[in-house]
Amino acid sequence: MDSLKEAGVVVEFDQKQSADVYNEITGKPDAYDVVLAPGDPSVFGVDADLLMRWWYAGDVWVDGRMHWKGQPAQKKFDDTLEKAAQAKGEEQMKGWHDCFDLLSENVPLYPLFHRKTPTAWDGKTLAGFKPISLTGLDFLDVGSTK
After folding, report:
1. Is 111 part of any domain?
2. Do 41 and 98 share a domain, yes or no?
3. Which ranges of the chain have pLDDT less than 70?
4. Which is deepest, 50, 52, 125, 145, by most CB within 10 Å?
């Protein structure tokens, strides 16, 4: 919160349960300026299609919370995301990048991620450990050498 204040953002902190916040803001575009909420679909992996569909496709977030349903940019996003999902290789990557550009230019809801994941371990004492590309830890077939 201090970082936001230092950036010149007026902060009024009101802690609520997620369901209470979402019930309050759905359909009321003037009910809030900014909502910071936990939620991390990246626990399912780093699939760009899944992450963009989680936040930016469908009715709940798009219509009830972002209020861009039916906007030209939203239609272009949906079309671009579908084309990227059908493409492969560099063509798919370009489609996803185009989607990210559309989102960053047009959407008032943009997720910020901060994950705590291990970046180092001692292979001499933690035998067989391998990092995974998701949040969390996988200790299957891992043993201690001590």
Report:
1. no
2. yes
3. 25-45, 58-61, 63-67, 108-119, 133-136, 146
4. 52
Mark whether 131 and 73 lie in a shared domain.
Answer: no
Q: Are residues 74 and 134 in the same domain?
A: no
Q: Would you say 102 and 73 are in contact if contact means Cβ atoms under 8 Å apart?
A: yes
Whether 131 is covered by a domain: the verdict is yes
What does the block give as tokens for 124? 């001499």
pLDDT tens string 38-56: 666 666 667 888 888 877 8
- pTM to 2 decimals? 0.56
Token representation of residue 23: 């019930």
CA atoms of 112 and 40, how far apart (whole Å)? 9
